[in-house]
Design a protein that fits this description.
By secondary structure, the chain is mainly alpha-helical. Among the domains are: about 45 residues; about 35 residues. The protein contains 17 helices and six strands. The strands form three sheets. Strands 1-2 form a two-stranded antiparallel sheet. The protein has a two-stranded antiparallel ribbon with strand order 3-4. The chain has a two-stranded antiparallel sheet with strand order 5-6.
């Protein structure tokens, strides 16, 4: 789209400015509005955040699929728009069902309908997908075979990029809101600071895919994001509502975010490297262990995260479009704002699984209690024999 989508109020207010500064103010005002909205949904809690992630995912899917329809002129393909949304429904049913079973096992086992759905979840998911697959085969038309398979592949790649990674965002959220907020905020900070440094100091082009990106913006954004990540992590690590995982409380029949803080979120004393002691004047420093992890998160957001944006830029150039949509004036579509977030979500999920998360005793006990008495007794005897051999009993 090439039309000006800036609200008329802003157009009148900024009419005396050059196009460069007008774009700067439009982007700035809309960015502040989006950050304000982000704060509001954080205040509303993890369940609302989960629903917002799903809404964003659906909108991103819609934007990419619409580009496919426009590029391949596939408006007249029988059933294909319906099938695309049907496959989105199937994949979401599979992923959200897996998440609910994994994180809220007690709730699922207590409710008979949920227990049945959980037990046969993967079979039901496969049956739903298979139905869509058969519908696609039956919808094939002689004159449109190649086009229909183009769009079938387009839909599945979109599902892989958008739905799978938004599911990982939900997983990060349930590990504790801090694992959701800090990475997303680091990407936002890097995006803003790279734009600011590039706008005022940018001279050296960074990559041909994005001619406006500069080395000055890239480097300035990196240092600003690492510092921001350290400060934000320090503030958030002191609040249980951010650091505790989301769990279901059987006594209150509600989802709770309350726990004893783990070692990650307890202040520790660290020795400052000798090289920095003379410069800082400190021999030791008290900080949360999570702040050290935040350096890894902010570094990824600054150095690798932008490649999600470069990937999106290459995609848009391949199909000769400026933005994915006109949803946000001055910014483009929702996918234009979340191209780096999806890559970041995957990294955070892998990082947690590799360096943070260990076996969860409460989940193991919950699963143990659902076994038959003879199976429970067998596990008990095996565990007892193991502890006796270790000299612990």
């Amino acid at each position: 789209p090439t039309s000006d989508d800036t609200p008329e109020v802003l157009n009148r207010a900024l009419s005396n400015l050059s196009s460069r500064w007008k774009n700067w103010w439009v982007r700035g005002i809309l960015t502040l509005a989006m950050i304000t909205f982000f704060f509001i949904i954080i205040y509303l809690g993890p369940m609302v955040l989960m629903m917002i992630v799903m809404c964003v995912q659906i909108k991103c899917f819609h934007e990419i699929i619409t580009i496919g329809y426009n590029v391949y002129h596939s408006y007249d393909l029988p059933w294909f728009r319906t099938l695309s949304w049907y496959f989105l429904l199937c994949v979401n049913y599979f992923f959200y069902g897996e998440t609910v079973t994994d994180y809220f096992f007690t709730l699922v086992q207590r409710e008979e309908p949920l227990r049945i759905l959980s037990k046969y979840h993967r079979f039901i998911s496969f049956a739903l997908y298979l139905t869509g697959f058969c519908m696609f085969v039956l919808s094939l038309v002689k004159k449109h075979y190649r086009l229909q398979f183009y769009m079938f592949g387009w839909t599945h790649v979109t599902l892989l990029i958008v739905v799978t990674q938004s599911h990982l965002i939900i997983h990060n959220l349930f590990e504790g809101m801090i694992w959701f907020i800090v990475p997303i905020s680091c990407v936002i900070c890097n995006d803003i600071m790279a734009y600011m440094f590039g706008f005022f100091f940018g001279r050296t082009p960074l990559i041909k895919l994005s001619p406006k990106k500069t080395w000055e913006g890239f480097i300035g954004g990196f240092f600003a994001t690492v510092l921001f990540g350290l400060l934000l992590s320090y503030v958030m690590s002191g609040y249980r509502c951010f650091t505790c995982p989301v769990e279901f409380n059987n006594d209150t029949n509600s989802f709770t975010v309350d726990c004893e803080p783990s070692e990650l979120f307890q202040l520790q004393e660290y020795t400052v490297p000798a090289v920095l002691q003379s410069a800082l004047g400190w021999k030791t420093v008290r900080m949360y262990p999570f702040q050290i992890h935040s350096i890894a998160l902010s570094t990824f957001a600054s150095l690798i995260g932008p490649f999600g944006g470069f990937f999106a830029s290459g995609f848009k150039r391949a199909f000769k479009i400026k933005d994915f949509a006109n949803t946000i004036p001055g910014h483009g579509g929702i996918m234009d704002r979340f191209d780096c977030q999806y890559l970041m979500a995957t990294f955070v999920n892998v990082y947690i699984a590799s360096f943070i998360r260990g076996p969860n005793p409460s989940k193991l006990i919950q699963q143990f209690l659902t076994l038959r008495p003879d199976q429970q007794l067998h596990i008990f005897n095996t565990l007892k024999a193991h502890l006796v051999d270790k000299g612990m009993l």
